[in-house]
Specification:
This protein is about 10% helix and about 50% strand.
Length: about 375
Amino acid sequence: MRKVVFGVLFILLCLGINIDVFALPSFKITQLTDNAGYFDHGPWISGDDVVWKRRQGEEGSYLYELFFYDGSSIIQLADVSTHDFDARTLEGKVVWRDWDSTMHDTEIFLYDGIMTTQITDNSNFDIDVDISGDKIVWEGIVAGESEIFYYDGLTISRLTTNSVDDEFPRISGDTIVWSHYDGNDYEVIFREGASQVQLTNNNYDDEYAEISGDNIVWHGDDGNDLEIFLYDGAITTQLTDNDYLDYWPKIDGNNVVWHGFDGNDNEIFYYDGSILQQLTDNDYDDWYPQVFGNNIVWYGFDGNDNEIFFYDGTGIVQVTDNIYDDRSARLSGMNLVWSGYDGNDYEIFLASPVPEPASVLLLGVGFIGLGAHRYLRRFFRID
């Protein structure tokens, strides 16, 4: 009997200590850029890799440069261009669009961690590029119409040929999704291998689809306002049904986030595959959430300026707290990146989690527990 009593007390003691010491994460913030007169913005992150664009010049005569940080050093991927790069990085690779001064259009470029390759060389304006593994998709403007193109690591294929617009392609593995104008409004199309399916068919716009595995999310008009829809590989579910705008959803696995109007301002909403919850509820706008697993980042107004906020599945942390705007936040795991004003111009900031004192305390509790267990076994014969 004594074995049972002391064993239960020991377990409850350890559980009680563990519950008390769990805490929300804190972050170490590193300023990746520090210059004067240049605007570093539009960051994208994958693991430790960050890519962003640097703007110089006055409004109306912008010039851009492209930079890449691999976790230890910064290199310049592209020299001065008259066009926005629209760059993104994934698993050590970077894709972007850049101006071709010979053809007087934009082309698609790929950096593989070693060298840069020009993927396209045509008379089209190639824009809105996305990457998954070795595969790339983009929108090409051909004779005034937007079409979808696909690169499998070896060859380029044109996926659409019609007299209407196909726009905003996204890719995950072998599956591609985009918005297709059917002569009346925009609908959502997805393609897997040689199979192509139109997911929506109504009289309202369904646009800006995002994809993760077999899951596809988009915002669509229901005749009253914009709502969020999710296709899980088998059926389509309308996640929201209210009298306010819900838009710009993002997805990772079964996790979906978006910002939506609540009658007063924009708030952050999160669907984890089974439960829909409103993460923020305040008197200020919270904008453009991004998701990785159950980690979520966004920027929101704090009454003075925009700051960066992070949700780890249990609670919300305000990552920045200053007198300047921080915005355009993205994440990979628990690594965060954003563009922040430093009083002179916008710079790129990177935040990584630091070990909490709770983690150290838990380790100590483990050693104490081990010693207590040995003590109890010796004097009370507890196994």
